[in-house]
Amino acid sequence: MGRVHARAARMAGATIAGVAGSRLEKAQQAGLGAAKAFASADELIESGEIDLVHICAPNHLHAPFALKALSAGLAVICEKPLATDAASAALMAERAAEAGLVATVPFVYRFHAMVREARQRIARGDVGRISLIQGSYLQDWLLRPDDDNWRVDAELGGPSRTFADIGSHWCDLAEFVTADRITGVCAQVAVVQPARGSTSPVVTEDVATVQFRTASGAVGTLATSQVSPGRKNRLFLEVSGTEASLAFDQEQPELLWVGDRGGSRTLMRDPTILSAAARPYSPLPAGHPQGYHDCFDAFVADTYAALRGEHRDGLPVFADGARAAAICEAVLTSARTGRWTEC
């Protein structure tokens, strides 16, 4: 992810002043085009040579690094999950707000043009009153017992893995698109591979399923998995209302499905026909596919614009990261107790 962040920073016109890793040699070998390698993150933050820090470290380091950066008066882009517990995430959001600093989280699926189009259509009432929100986020990169990663270790990744890693993206996207807040969850989690490499037993979930309700009275379901064969990064969101439905599939991001009682159609990303809210995120002509890098570049560019004092609609800030952490904690509580849990 450091390479993804560095590319987006350069695309936005930034100079990468420095890089830090777990040790100096790692920073020197990172190959991120930085002007200087620092021996530690603390040294980088305290250097006085940067005005914004990108935090791409393992999850358990997000809170201490971000809080230190905020205390130093730096703007922050911090990978999600914002923290491994909801209280720390809330503290980070509070500190950023108190300091008046730009602090954002890469919920980058917000930056697909067709996501912005769906959001605009819902906001102007095209779907009517929302009744059902449903979808999934499925991957297979941890399918086998010999598939391993630091995220599996709860000491590094936190008490939730699949939901914190990808369920957080889905919930943020659902709330962003609908402007409706998830208020209660009823969840199940399961470990499919009980041992992986050096991690035995595995205690963080491979799959999670969630029923939820929203502030407006809509109901919903979500399935998340990192062990679904053949699914590489399939984030799917469908919103049904009293007048129409909309569906977005991140593996086919050029398209938005629109359905009503009279039939259905699929809209292709075309800046000439998109709403004013979506058009800025559709820089290429129709038929020239955009993807994940484009979304990430747009997210970083909007963050840097905010650093210059410009307003960017829909920029995901630390408060959104804290919101995702609160939902994640409610999911774990519900799965543990077998009860509906407020969030």
TrEMBL record:
Q: Its Gene Ontology molecular function terms?
A: nucleotide binding; oxidoreductase activity
Q: Which UniProt keywords apply?
A: Oxidoreductase
Which positions fall inside the Gfo/Idh/MocA-like oxidoreductase N-terminal domain?
2-105
Among InterPro entries, the record links this protein to:
Gfo/Idh/MocA-like_OxRdtase_N (IPR000683), Gfo/Idh/MocA_oxidrdct_glycsds (IPR050463), GFO_IDH_MocA-like_dom (IPR055170), NAD(P)-bd_dom_sf (IPR036291)
User: Which is one Pfam family of this protein?
Assistant: GFO_IDH_MocA
**Ranges for the GFO/IDH/MocA-like oxidoreductase domain?**
115-246
Note the PANTHER family from the entry: BCDNA.GH03377
Q: What is this protein called?
A: Oxidoreductase
